């Protein structure tokens, strides 16, 4: 900043012209020669988005401008009051929609799309099966909730070659054109399968030796080569003995899993053998009961078939009388 002149050295202004003469004549900053960078307003960003797509058929709300640049599904900021239970001091407050920053894959565009979207939209995308199906829906309510940014993204997706081929196949299925006409039109418009857009190839970067995870033996041998150890041998032992790599943990997990599978198999065989033994015992008891009943039936049949023999039913013996006093003596 320029040096300030003490107020005591400045003459006291007496007229309006004198006051105006003391004011700075230039509004630019005096401590730099670089012009301030003009910031891009939300309206300029919106005009830039809408210039890349057809006319948006719905009204754009002038409030809550961040919803212009994401998939908010008509979610808007809400206002209300905080009213406590005891002290009735009403204060204003606001509720914002639950917005997430996500990267979603678009099969039509062949790229990841980074967008701001509400949790309601995220749930709908999972339900319909992807971002492309959400954007290409023809329902008026879906088109209205896309917003300007979603409308421009939908137009870009419709202009992709894969979606154009899909529209052509739907026309053939409805009988509007023949398959030969579809192939000719695809070649003329440059959307045939032979000239489709090249997929992005992600180059596999080889893992460097220093970034490769080391086994325990390799770590231990490397630790023994350290020339300067601050706390001596126990420090190396504490640092390296207790650690294990992902492969070692995976081997332990697989061994434990195999042991549990063997234990479960043995328990299942034992349970099956117990069930077989119980069933065999029940069948043996039933066979013995049937044999016993057959023997009793034969005995009763032999008694009835014998001549002159009648079955005499002996009377039941009377209960013995209680002893008298003399008998007790």
Automatic annotation (TrEMBL):
Keyword Mitochondrion carried by entry: no
InterPro entries, alphabetized: Ribosomal_bL28, Ribosomal_bL28/bL31-like_sf, Ribosomal_bL28_sf
Domain of life: Eukaryota
Keyword Secreted attached: no
Gene3D superfamilies tied to this protein: Ribosomal protein L28/L24
Family: Belongs to the bacterial ribosomal protein bL28 family.
Functional summary from the UniProt entry: Component of the mitochondrial ribosome (mitoribosome), a dedicated translation machinery responsible for the synthesis of mitochondrial genome-encoded proteins, including at least some of the essential transmembrane subunits of the mitochondrial respiratory chain. The mitoribosomes are attached to the mitochondrial inner membrane and translation products are cotranslationally integrated into the membrane.
Name of protein: Large ribosomal subunit protein bL28m
Annotated organism of origin: Dactylellina haptotyla (strain CBS 200.50)
């Amino acid at each position: 900043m320029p040096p300030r002149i003490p107020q005591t050295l400045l003459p006291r202004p007496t007229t309006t012209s004198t006051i105006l003469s003391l004011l700075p004549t230039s509004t630019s900053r005096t401590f730099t020669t670089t012009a301030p960078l003009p910031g891009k307003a939300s309206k300029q960003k919106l005009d830039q988005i809408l210039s890349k797509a057809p006319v948006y058929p719905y009204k754009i709300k002038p409030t809550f401008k961040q919803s212009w640049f994401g998939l908010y599904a008509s979610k808007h900021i809400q206002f209300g009051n905080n009213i406590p239970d005891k002290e009735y001091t009403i204060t204003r407050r606001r509720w914002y929609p639950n917005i997430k920053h996500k990267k979603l894959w678009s099969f039509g565009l062949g790229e990841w799309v980074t967008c701001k979207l509400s949790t309601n939209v995220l749930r709908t995308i999972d339900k319909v099966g992807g971002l492309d199906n959400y954007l290409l829906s023809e329902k008026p309510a879906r088109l209205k909730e896309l917003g300007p940014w979603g409308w421009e993204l939908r137009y870009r997706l419709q202009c992709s070659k894969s979606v154009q081929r899909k529209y052509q196949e739907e026309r053939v299925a409805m009988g509007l054109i023949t398959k030969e006409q579809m192939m000719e039109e695809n070649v003329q418009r440059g959307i045939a399968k032979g000239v489709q857009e090249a997929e992005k190839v992600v180059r596999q970067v080889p893992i460097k030796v220093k970034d490769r995870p080391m086994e325990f033996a390799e770590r231990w041998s490397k630790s023994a080569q350290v020339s300067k150890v601050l706390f001596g041998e126990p420090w190396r032992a504490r640092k390296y003995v207790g650690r294990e790599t992902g492969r070692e943990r995976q081997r332990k997990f697989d061994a434990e899993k195999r042991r549990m599978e063997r234990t479960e198999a043995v328990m299942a065989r034992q349970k099956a053998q117990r069930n077989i033994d119980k069933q065999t015992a029940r069948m043996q008891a039933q066979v013995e009961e049937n044999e016993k009943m057959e023997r009793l039936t034969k005995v009763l049949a032999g008694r009835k078939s014998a001549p002159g023999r009648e079955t005499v039913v002996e009377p039941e013996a009377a209960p013995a009388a209680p002893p008298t006093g003399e008998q007790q003596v």
